[in-house]
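Retry 2 of 3 after timeout on previous attempt. Resubmitting structure tokens to design endpoint.
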């Protein structure tokens, strides 16, 4: 019996020692992983657009909005720098239909990313008054290769902005043509400015005379600004 007790005690001691060794090995592996994961990123530095495409439909904007600024974010990849870094943008003419100075305000293509910064914003001012009703405009901007911050992600090395000023005639317009005359998006845009939003057929059915009172103000506005070239019929308004 004594020998049996000794053998049992030795087995327990052996099991405990094995477990302690296993825990020690696991602890070493955990320490090793923690050290590896704390290593600093040593990849290449560059910059990229956050998105490859943007769409801007300006037709339903209020008439008073003569132009608008769209903000295009860019993100630097890699370690932040303690000194400013430069990069260069370029308009890609082969896939651009919009004209600088006509459809959008020219912007600086020579860019500086401040020290410590990891992002930048390209502001593009769209000149709405120079956009015609039916055209779709495209502006494609790329990141130049030969700079301190070259394009780092191929799919995001260029950005395409598509914009227009189209506002289709609402289906209810013919019902009010006696007062409103021929459809002109300027009339509807001025109405949207004062009403706060476009109008559905259901809303027009329910609030026709309320909307006509707003259109009467639109008529008065354009009569006071004949240079806009917007005309209404010379008829009696019952509102």
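Retry 2 succeeded. Sequence:
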């Amino acid at each position: 019996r004594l020998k049996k007790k000794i053998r049992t005690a030795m087995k327990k001691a052996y099991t405990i020692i094995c477990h302690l060794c296993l825990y020690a090995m696991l602890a070493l592996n955990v320490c090793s992983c923690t050290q590896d994961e704390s290593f600093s990123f040593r990849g290449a530095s560059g910059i990229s657009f956050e998105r490859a495409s943007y769409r801007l439909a300006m037709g339903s904007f209020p008439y008073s909005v003569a132009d608008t600024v769209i903000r295009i974010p860019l993100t630097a990849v890699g370690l932040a720098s303690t000194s400013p870094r430069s990069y260069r943008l370029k308009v890609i003419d082969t896939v651009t239909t919009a004209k600088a100075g006509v459809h959008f305000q020219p912007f600086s293509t020579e860019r500086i990313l401040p020290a410590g910064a990891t992002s930048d914003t390209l502001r593009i001012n769209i000149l709405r008054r120079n956009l015609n009703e039916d055209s779709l405009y495209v502006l494609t901007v790329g990141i130049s290769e030969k700079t301190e911050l070259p394009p780092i992600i191929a799919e995001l090395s260029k950005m395409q902005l598509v914009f227009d000023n189209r506002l289709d005639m609402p289906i209810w317009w013919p019902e009010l043509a006696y007062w409103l005359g021929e459809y002109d998006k300027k009339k509807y845009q001025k109405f949207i400015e004062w009403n706060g939003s476009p109008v559905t057929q259901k809303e027009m059915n329910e609030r026709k005379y309320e909307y006509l009172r707003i259109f009467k103000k639109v008529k008065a506005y354009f009569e006071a600004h004949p240079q806009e070239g917007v005309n209404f019929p010379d008829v009696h308004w019952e509102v």
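Attempt log closed. The two ends are 115 Å apart (CA to CA).
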